[in-house]
From TrEMBL:
Native species: Arenibacter palladensis
UniProt xrefs under Pfam families: Y1_Tnp (PF01797)
Ranges where the Transposase IS200-like domain occurs: 7-122
GO biological process, one term: DNA transposition
Protein name in the entry: REP element-mobilizing transposase RayT
MF-aspect GO terms: DNA binding; transposase activity
Length: 188
């Protein structure tokens, strides 16, 4: 299957999981390192609107800022660097991720808002936490936080809040996620 092109100025859902559904993150140290690599390889090439790192998969909502070839190469460098480090740390060899990273182009603002909510609430949907608001490795806390003290990875906070009109609506719509039918989406 041919991969969707990453067109400049367009929004995408980027996601993947571990090979055979296996873990791609075995510790918080792995997750923090992955976020560090995202900053290293993707900053100024994409704008991150939302992210969530689960043990066996990840999700990102991004806007492409640079030309497709540069962004695709940056993602490739990110995933290769992480896989090499993960394999070395956990004394393993071979592929870590299932196929190439997947991407879905986001065609409208409503879909983008729903995707951000889906990504931020993913840990609760998967039963990893009872309250998505407390999950450390998603963008929810960064979006609602007034300070940068606990920020693991910078996101396009102002753009995200503007998509939802204001912070109160952002939080309200996250709480209403099931009435929006988001639990019916199956991207994992």
């Amino acid at each position: 299957m041919k991969q969707e092109k990453l067109e400049q100025d367009c929004y995408y859902h980027i996601y993947n999981r571990g090979i055979n559904g296996g873990p791609i993150f075995k510790s918080n140290e792995n997750k923090s390192y992955f976020l560090k690599l995202i900053n290293k390889y993707l900053s100024n090439k994409v704008s991150i609107l939302a992210y969530c790192l689960m043990d066996n998969h990840y999700h990102m909502a991004i806007q492409v800022l640079e030309e497709e070839k540069m962004v695709t190469q940056a993602f490739s460098n990110l995933f290769n660097a992480y896989a090499k480090a993960f394999n070395k740390m956990h004394n393993r060899t071979g592929s870590l991720f299932e196929k190439h990273f997947r991407r879905i182009k986001i065609g409208d603002t409503n879909y983008l808002r729903n995707l951000i909510i889906y990504i931020n609430t993913n840990p609760e949907s998967h039963g990893v936490t009872e309250d998505y608001k407390t999950f450390k490795y998603s963008s929810f806390q960064t979006t609602i936080s007034d300070s940068n003290d606990t920020v693991l990875m910078p996101i396009a906070k102002e753009e995200v809040i503007n998509l939802f009109e204001d912070i109160e609506n952002f939080e309200y719509l996250h709480e209403q996620k099931r009435s929006l039918g988001l639990d019916k989406l199956n991207w994992d």
